[in-house]
């Protein structure tokens, strides 16, 4: 019986690889399949970018701090793991854009920067009269005749002009990828806007029509209170990583070891680990970054186009204060920074307001971001220099009269994949190459088809489903 058992190797213990392992273990149990799953993680911990620091009553995320509720896969996984009762929504509040040394409210009704309510847009000081008139051109401009992919910048500048893009849309959209919207792929990041233009012509009118109407409170006639669009876990995102590791008893975790070679001998595939052992695998899921995939298949002359997927470097710094040390005269949850200003920070979240469960009573927790395409040198500075630069920026915006009780700096070097124009085709071509040369190897993860946590879970599950279908055919 043992000779008939099959082996699946997952490379990478981030949320993509863990999700693949979870959904494979589920099928193996339900169908009583003779399949072993081995997960190889190069570091000594699981979770990848999900890293939670629990300190002195604070819950501090080094990587992502939440996920979109409308993308259902993370909530569904939490439900299956028995964690649904630990989910919490973000508190809603005003968000701002820092422009000309002043915090300007993001106009009400803006959807990723696209106005759907004319009043707040016209009253906003983010734009000049000329900029507002140019944006109104969206009501009259024809549909685009561009075929294929285009950059976010080109698309939105054509619809609304440079001022609205530079002062609102760029800070909002580029922050997700720490990228340059004039190179970012529309097709791979926000294709829904192209669909709205195709169907409705005007983005403003189209987005207004496609948004669900707010439900009315019973017998009141007033709009229901706006609810948060994001979820996290009461005790931090690493909660789900800990649950996955605990609930995957049949998965063989190999930590602190990396894959050095993947080779093929007729229908047999062999994985060599850096400590010298060799695993014969019936299927492989590469849930690593694209750079690792490219390197592993360089000897075979495939996946080399993945070198065209650029990356950016960012750092975050979380700063803890007593409440008396920070004087904030603006109500809200945080702000983004326009590129036109003389600031090193690109955004700041008032975590004690947005995520009250992260912060003890009587404390303030701020999280600032630095680094983006073309402005990455700051990421290499020592922690104390980053802290002083960030504090200097923040003190220009609101009063901070004490040094922080502590700070935590996290660097993500060459870590943010950039979905540039043509990304979707590039990835499709790479996967096609792989399917011909190594049909039992799957690619999944943030480098390919979405950087959000739900996107990565979807990719891990889809890869697991394809592998299981092949092995049980």
From TrEMBL:
Pathway: Porphyrin-containing compound metabolism; protoheme biosynthesis
Function: Involved in coproporphyrin-dependent heme b biosynthesis. Catalyzes the oxidation of coproporphyrinogen III to coproporphyrin III.
Keyword Oxidoreductase found: yes
Phylogenetic classification of the source organism: Bacteria, Bacillati, Bacillota, Bacilli, Bacillales
Gene name, Swiss-Prot/TrEMBL: hemY
Name the record gives this protein: Coproporphyrinogen III oxidase
One Pfam family hit: Amino_oxidase
Cofactors, names only: FAD
Family, per entry: Belongs to the protoporphyrinogen/coproporphyrinogen oxidase family. Coproporphyrinogen III oxidase subfamily.
Source organism of the structure: Sporosarcina jeotgali
Compartment(s) of residence: Cytoplasm
Principal EC category: oxidoreductase
Alphabetically ordered keywords of this record: Cytoplasm, FAD, Flavoprotein, Heme biosynthesis, Oxidoreductase
Domain Amine oxidase span(s) in chain numbering: 15-468
Signal sequence bounds: none
Reactions listed under catalytic activity: coproporphyrinogen III + 3 O2 = coproporphyrin III + 3 H2O2
Protein EC: 1.3.3.15
UniProt GO molecular function: oxygen-dependent protoporphyrinogen oxidase activity
């Amino acid at each position: 019986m043992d000779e008939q058992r099959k082996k699946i190797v997952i490379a990478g213990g981030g949320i993509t690889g863990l999700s693949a392992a979870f959904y494979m273990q589920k099928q193996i149990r339900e169908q009583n399949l003779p399949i072993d799953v081995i997960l190889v993680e190069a570091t000594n911990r699981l979770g990848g970018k999900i890293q939670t620091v629990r300190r002195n009553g604070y819950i501090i995320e080094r990587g992502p701090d939440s996920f979109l509720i409308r993308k259902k896969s993370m909530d569904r996984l939490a439900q299956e793991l028995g964690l649904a009762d630990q989910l919490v929504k973000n508190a809603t509040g005003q968000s701002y854009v820092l422009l000309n040394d002043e915090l300007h409210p993001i106009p009400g009704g803006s959807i990723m920067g696209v106005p759907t309510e004319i009043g707040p847009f016209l009253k906003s000081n983010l734009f000049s009269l000329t900029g507002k008139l140019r944006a109104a051109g969206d009501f009259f401009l024809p549909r685009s005749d561009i075929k294929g992919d285009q950059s976010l910048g080109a698309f939105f500048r054509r619809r609304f002009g440079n001022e609205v893009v530079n002062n609102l849309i760029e800070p909002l959209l580029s922050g997700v990828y720490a990228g340059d919207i004039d190179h970012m792929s529309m097709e791979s990041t926000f294709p829904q806007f192209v669909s709205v233009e195709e169907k409705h012509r005007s983005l403003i009118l189209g987005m207004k029509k496609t948004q669900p109407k707010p439900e009315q409170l019973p017998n009141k006639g007033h709009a229901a209170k706006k609810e948060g669009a994001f979820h996290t876990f009461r005790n931090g995102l690493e909660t789900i990583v800990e649950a996955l590791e605990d609930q995957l008893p049949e998965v063989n975790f190999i930590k602190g070891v990396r894959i050095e070679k993947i080779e093929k001998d007729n229908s047999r595939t062999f994985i060599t680990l850096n400590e010298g052992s060799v695993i014969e695998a019936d299927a492989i899921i590469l849930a690593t970054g694209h750079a690792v995939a490219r390197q592993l298949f360089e000897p075979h002359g495939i996946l080399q186009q993945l070198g065209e997927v650029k990356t950016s470097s960012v750092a975050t710094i979380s700063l803890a204060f007593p409440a008396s040390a920070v004087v904030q005269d603006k109500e809200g949850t945080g702000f983004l920074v326009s590129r036109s200003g003389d600031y090193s920070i690109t955004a700041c979240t008032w975590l004690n307001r947005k995520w009250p469960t992260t912060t003890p009573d009587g404390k303030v927790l701020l999280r600032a971001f630095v680094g983006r395409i073309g402005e990455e040198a700051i990421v290499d500075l020592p922690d104390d220099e980053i802290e002083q630069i960030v504090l200097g920026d923040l003190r220009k915006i609101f009063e901070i009269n004490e040094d922080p009780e502590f700070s935590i700096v996290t660097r993500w070097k060459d870590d943010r994949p950039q979905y540039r124009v043509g990304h979707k085709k590039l990835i499709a071509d790479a996967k096609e190459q792989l399917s011909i040369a190594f049909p039992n190897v799957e690619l999944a993860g943030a480098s390919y088809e979405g950087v959000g946590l739900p996107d990565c879970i979807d990719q891990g599950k889809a890869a697991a489903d394809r592998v299981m279908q092949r092995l049980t055919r």
